[in-house]
Write a structure and sequence with these properties.
By secondary structure, this protein is α+β, with helices and mostly antiparallel strands. 23% of the residues lie in helices and 42% in strands. The protein has an eight-stranded mixed beta sheet with strand order 2-3-4-1-5-8-7-6.
Length: 133
């Protein structure tokens, strides 16, 4: 059901500042920026082969990304796996004992549905499932 690693989410204080590294040092091109109001975050996506880098900048001090940065600093926030059936993937993970953050997919960036597993269920790595709408 998982088809590939879709993207790596990187929490940053400033997309403008972080973009300099991804564009000037790594030579990647930004494919698009978006604000996801429901998650209180701005995103920027960079393709690296078939995997994307998603920069995540908080838009509110109470957002999950702001709290992550406050607690752990900037850096890798999550790994996202693309699935062809996000509802079935969530059910399978739950049945196997994973703790779900989202029992029902929510709208995410890039016109996708997303849902997260709690990092306590995945050896400290916040895991996202994502699927096209």
């Amino acid at each position: 059901m998982i088809t590939k690693i879709d993207h790596l989410g990187i929490a940053v204080n400033s997309i403008e500042e972080a973009s300099k590294y991804y564009e000037k040092i790594l030579g990647l091109t930004c494919e698009g920026r978006e604000e996801v109001e429901s998650q209180k975050v701005r995103t920027a996506f960079y393709a690296c082969g078939e995997v994307h880098i998603e920069l995540l900048e908080p838009t509110d001090p109470e957002s999950p990304i702001a709290k992550f940065i406050e607690k752990r600093g900037e850096g890798i926030h999550h790994i996202a796996f693309k699935t062809d059936d996000i509802t079935a993937q969530l059910k399978s993970a739950s049945n196997a004992g994973a703790k779900l953050i989202h029992e029902v997919p929510i709208e995410g960036a890039n016109d996708k549905l997303v849902a997260f597993l709690h990092p306590k269920s995945s050896f400290g790595v916040l895991t996202e499932f994502c699927a096209n709408k």
